[in-house]
Write the structure tokens for this entry.
Amino acid sequence: MSTSEQWQTVCRREALAEHQAIEFTVNETPGFILAHKGHISAFVNRCPHLGIGLNWMPGRFLDVDRCFIQCATHGALFTIDRGQCIAGPCQGEALTPLETREQDGELLVRVPA
């Protein structure tokens, strides 16, 4: 498989508003992409503590102040830029980041095989 075949389109750039997340599945891997302060981040939707999805509702990943990604099960907080856990039972661990890029107005992610 070539490198270009590994990139998967998730959504149009204009579909992703600030502080919003869009869920997706690529190669059976659940993930989410979000926009925060003009930066795009994507992660595997799996808490490093329990291995379960982070969101409490579809597309809802951020804490009430929209400053951190929050695990709905046990409240762990993760930085939006790197996915580092800064509070909770998985402190010191991190979410699995996914590479992102924008091409022709579309947001793409690359999920490791």
The CA atoms of residues 46 and 53 lie 5 Å apart. The chain has a mean pLDDT of 89.
